[in-house]
Amino acid sequence: MLKRSALVILLPLALLGATPTWAAAVKATDVIQRAIDGFVRPAYASLHRRAAGLNKAMHALCEKPSKGDLDAARAEFSRTVDAWSSAEIIGFGPIKENNRLERMLFWPDRKSIGLKQVQAALAAQDPSATDPAQLSGKSVAMQGLGALEFVLYGDGADALAGKNDPYRCAYGAAVAGNIETMAGDVADAWNKPDGFAALWANPGPQNPLYRDGTEAVTELVGIFINELEMVRDVRLKGFLGDKPEADKPKQAIYWRSQNTTNSLAGNLAGIDGLFEASKLGDALPADARWMAESIHIQLVNGVATAKSVQGPIDLALADPALREKLEHFALITSSLSTLFGTRLTAEFGLTAGFSSLDGD
């Protein structure tokens, strides 16, 4: 295991009158370790637990199909989406290995590639797709949450409540098993004492990924900036048009299962959880501490706003009051982007504008 570094984030904040007491509290190792222990590990552990429950529910449905078991499987799916929506903001490290990120959620599917592949699998009833081990080697679009959503909520899904479509259920159970395996593998990887967590929390000259504290904290701040852009510009504006006639409800993530806004809320809840756990705001000078409180308040408001829009997303968009809430959600994320991407980065002397969405 890498030896813990005593490196301190040496940023231009010292030029703004930071006191020695404040500077001593700004160790990159402490900020990142708090982020890992307080958010990353619990988030992926929660995802693993939810995925295990989903897998169990899918197998129960296949063994004894009924309306009650179908409802139970759908409820576990929604719980897993909620857990994933929080954890998915950590889109680097173990989740990027073996294409896990795309395998967990292939989205956006602008050309309906994933949908067509799932539909083709159901039509052909390929037995290899019902084996989690073999499924993991197939197209990424066939083995994650998007595929399982169609199985549980797409055309023909109600047949799962009876015995008329055992293949559909077997395929769904294989997908659920694959999701559980990936979630467990990622949770285990974050817990390895000499794994990725050690690299991120121990920057130094010999570290192949993070040479100093600034690079380690830049990775953390980049999560906030990039995820807010993703939530607003890709997830929300992917279906919310500038005008009602430009709305595209069937472009919304999880529209079939009515989890669109719950996932948006989960994304912001994850950002808030990570920000609070890392205590990054404590590194701000006294006259800028208001920024951390404002970030937390706006994230909480964003979560509440998203959760206040429930039901089918097409009906929500057709309701002026609910559509206005979605527009307000967009404004909240824009304000947060300014706080993180302009104000906070300036205070920390970091380079703003490092978006993972550039070029998309």
State the main characteristics:
single chain, 360 residues, mainly alpha, A middle domain of Talin 1, 2 domains, 0% strand, globular, disordered N terminus, disordered C terminus
Topology:
Blueprint: H1 20-24, H2 28-63, H3 67-87, H4 100-104, H5 113-124, H6 132-135, H7 145-153, H8 166-191, H9 196-201, H10 213-236, H11 260-278, H12 290-307, H13 313-318, H14 320-348
Your description of this structure?
By secondary structure, the protein is mostly helical. The protein has 2 domains: 12-29 and 207-348, no CATH class; 32-191, M75 peptidase, HXXE motif (A middle domain of Talin 1). It is 61% helix and 0% strand. It has 14 helices and no strands. The chain has helices at residues 20-24, 28-63, 67-87, 100-104, 113-124, 132-135, 145-153, 166-191, 196-201, 213-236, 260-278, 290-307, 313-318, 320-348. The radius of gyration is 22 Å and the shape is globular. The relative contact order is 0.14.
Task: Identify the overall geometry.
Answer: globular
Structural class computed from helices and strand pairing: mainly alpha
Which range best describes the helical content: under 10%, 10-25%, 25-40%, 40-55%, 55-70% or over 70%?
Answer: 55-70%
Order of helices and strands: HHHHHHHHHHHHHH
Mean pLDDT: 90
Q: Largest beta sheet, briefly? A: none
Number of domains: 2
Number of E strands: 0
Termini separation comes to: 37 Å
